[in-house]
Amino acid sequence: MPGLERVFRTDAVILRRQDFGEADRLLTLLTPDHGKLSAIAKGVRKPIARKTGHVELFARVDMLINRGRDLHIVAQAETKESFLPLREDLLRGTYANHVVELLDRFTVEQDASRAEFDLLVETLTRLCTADDLWLAARYYELALLRLAGFAPSLHRCSIGQESLEPRDQFFSPADGGVICPDHHLGLSRGMPVTLNALKTLRYLQTRPWDAVRVLHIDAPLHLELERLLLAYITYLLEQRLQSVAFLRRLRRENL
Predict the structure, then answer these.
(1) 2 lies in some domain
(2) Which of 35, 135, 216, 228 could cross-link 110 (Cys pair, CB 3.0–4.6 Å)?
(3) pTM of the entire predicted model
């Protein structure tokens, strides 16, 4: 962590923002070298404020920040990448909100690394143009779980630690990954996972995005992957994600 200089310049992505006082906004930022920060953007709700257009949700911004005792103050802000499609398209924006909510839940103030910052920027970029938003979301979830130290075990039984045979298995959030049918006998925990879903999860976990992005995954498999990963994430966080409920509602409305 850099020294506690009074004023510092940083790259930042705006994760959350909320009205603060009569004319200010409280921003939650992710930075590559200072982790996650809270900062006040003063006067940005005034119509003539210069910083107004540079503190949009999801935007990547070059900021000059004055360090405060309790809250930092945004002295200057200039947009580097607006990720405009995420604010113009409801579905893309909802996926972006899901990505940001996950990152926010898995990190605390001044936590997070440059790897998490880079992953976020890469994912927001993908969500602006990707045809398969489900795929981009699942890839991000697995990558973030790995960076947070919670990568699910997909190659060995989470109980017996033996290599998994090529057949349908069970997935147990409580055990941190896949359980073979033999060790699942007599257990009340764990949900079925098909061999096809397991192979796909392994591929997403171990391949770069350029290899993953060409996959063609049908709706039933997408739903299975989503069910497994969100069950695991919910178990880890001990709470449901607000973005998931809204995504599912959008999906139902578009059927």
Answers:
(1) no
(2) 35
(3) 0.91
Instruction: Evaluate whether residue 240 is within a structural domain.
Output: yes
Please tell me the predicted confidence (pLDDT) of residue 1: 45
125-145 b/e (C-beta count within 10 Å ≥ 16 → b): ebbbebebbbbbbbbbbbbbb
64 & 108 share domain: no
Tokens of residue 61, six digits: 């911004």
CB 36 within 8 A of CB 30: yes
- pLDDT over 80 (residue 109): no
Looking at the domain assignment, is residue 1 inside a domain? no
Q: Note every long-range contact of 243-247, with CB atoms under 8 Å and residues 24 or more positions apart, other chains counting.
A: 243/94, 243/97, 243/98, 243/101, 244/98, 246/94, 246/97, 247/94, 247/95, 247/98
Give me the DSSP letters along 37-51. Answer: EEEEETTTTSTT-TT
Q: Which residues of 173-206 are buried (b: 16+ CB within 10 A; e: fewer)?
A: bebbbbbbeebbeeeeebeebeeebbebbeebbe
Give me the phi and psi of 45, to 5 degrees please: -85, -5
221-236 per-position pLDDT tens digit = 999 999 999 999 999 9
**Domain around 26:** 7-81
**What's the DSSP call for residue 4?**
-
CA angle, 211 then 213 then 214, to 5°: 80
Count the alpha carbons within 13 Å of 142 in the hemisphere toward its beta carbon: 24
The strand order across the sheet containing 169-172 reads 177-179, 169-172, 191-193
What local confidence, expressed as pLDDT, does residue 254 receive? 67
Q: Is residue 27, in this structure, part of any structural domain at all?
A: yes
Instruction: Name residue 244's amino acid.
Output: V
